[in-house]
Amino acid sequence: GWGIVTGPIDDLNVLLTHVGFETRSTPTHEVALREMVAIAGHDDLAARLVVQRLLPGALSVVRRQRQLGRDHDAAADMIGALWIAIRTFNPERQPSCLAAALIGDAEYLAFKRAQRQRSSGERPSDFPQDVAQPERELQPWEELAELVQAAAEAKATDADDQAFLQCLLETPRTVDIARTLNLSSRTIRNRRHRATERLRAHVVA
Q1: Which residues contact 12 (CB under 8 A, 6 or more apart)?
Q2: Mean of pLDDT values over 96-122
Q3: Which of 46, 65, 192, 200 is deepest in the core (most CB within 10 A)?
Q4: Are 148 and 203 in contact (CB under 8 A)?
């Protein structure tokens, strides 16, 4: 009934694959994910599926926060914030990589918003209303996502490059990407180097 895929669905994994979970990301996946996020604003099951779709990227943030000394609640904080970011996402926003934008929103809500309030002496306001459109600086990976989109629009990268770069944005660890794409880590590093050189040439141009 959501209209994201055609034909009968007997397994939710079909929907997850359609929005780019554990598969090579494409523009079609990006469109389907945006449709599911729009539904997730008022549908618990859709929101739960989007959480699952973003889980690999969210866990990468958790690992990074733990390396910075976060306590054992980092995972719970991140997943809770991810749920809020999905449910309150403004459909008028047009990030070049929706997965990266949602994970960035959740990271801000889970780990940076409270710290900023403490450092500024700001008194927290009502949480659900306050997080509808969090104001924050772009994260480096979001800036990279915008660069990837700009390079695609300028035809500085081809479809394979774009799909691979989006995969890098969502799953930074080489070993995880290699496992997903069934390739060696060396092959992934070589592809990353070539794609990086194309982006660098675009920036210089």
Answers
A1: 49
A2: 74
A3: 46
A4: no
- Residue 113 pLDDT class (50, 70, 90 cuts): low
Structure tokens at 106: 């959740």
Q: Measuring CA to CA, which residue among 32, 72, 75 is closest to residue 53?
A: 32
Q: Which of 189, 95, 200, 85 minimizes the C-alpha distance to 151?
A: 200
The one-letter code for the residue type at 182 is N
Nearest to 55 by CA among 185, 170, 141, 178: 170
| pTM for this predicted structure | 0.60
- Output the pLDDT for position 34: 93
CA-CA distance, 15 to 4, in Å (whole number)?
Answer: 8
What is the rounded CA–CA span in Å between residue 40 and residue 119?
Answer: 33
Residue range 10-60, pLDDT digits in tens: 888 889 988 988 887 788 888 999 999 999 999 999 999 999 999 988 888
Contacts of 172 (CB under 8 A, 6+ apart): 60, 141
Using CA atoms, how far residue 195 sits from 117, 147, 192, in Å, is 39, 12, 5
Q: Contacts by 188-193 with C-beta closer than 8 Å and gap 24+? A: 191/164, 192/164, 192/168
Residue with tokens 């080489």: 174
Q: Are 34 and 98 in contact (CB under 8 A)?
A: yes
Upper half-sphere CA count for residue 102 (Cβ side, 13 Å): 33
Q: Would you say the C-alpha torsion 181, 10, 91, 127 has a positive or negative sign?
A: negative
